[in-house]
């Protein structure tokens, strides 16, 4: 299962499970929030590690840059689209509000 599939599934699960949602939200307060988040993911049965999450965001961002004007200097600057960890919580907040 790829990183986006894991995050989508986990997001659905967390939007229906207040205890899991709270546990995931608490990772944001940790000294190393991405590692804590990935640990919770693994506890839930999703094989997700820090570098998987980071690399998926960077690959997505690089792909977006290449797809616009050949990835040259006129490509748009994207803000935050490479941070799947933060995007997970933005989407989770939208689904639970």
Distinct helical segment count: 5
Q: Indicate the overall shape.
A: globular
Classify the secondary structure makeup into a structural class: mainly alpha
**Cα distance spanning the termini:** 28 Å
Tell me the Rg in angstroms.
15 Å
Strand-residue proportion: under 5%
Give the domain tally: 1
- Percent helix, as a range, is 55-70%
Topology:
Blueprint: H1 3-16, H2 18-26, H3 33-43, H4 50-67, H5 84-96
Helix pairs in contact: 1-2, 1-5
List keywords for this structure.
globular; mainly alpha; 97 residues
Structure, explained:
This protein has helices at 3-16, 18-26, 33-43, 50-67, 84-96. The protein has 97 residues and is mostly helical. It has one domain. Helix 1 packs across helix 2. The mean pLDDT is 80.
């Amino acid at each position: 299962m790829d990183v986006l599939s894991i995050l989508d599934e986990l997001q659905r699960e967390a939007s229906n499970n207040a205890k899991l949602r709270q546990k995931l939200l608490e990772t944001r307060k940790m000294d190393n929030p991405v590692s804590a988040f990935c640990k919770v993911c693994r506890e839930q049965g999703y094989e997700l590690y820090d570098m998987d999450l980071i690399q998926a965001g960077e690959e997505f961002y690089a792909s977006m840059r290449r797809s616009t004007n050949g990835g040259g200097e006129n490509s748009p600057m994207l803000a935050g689209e490479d941070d799947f960890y933060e995007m997970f919580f933005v989407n989770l907040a939208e689904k639970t509000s």
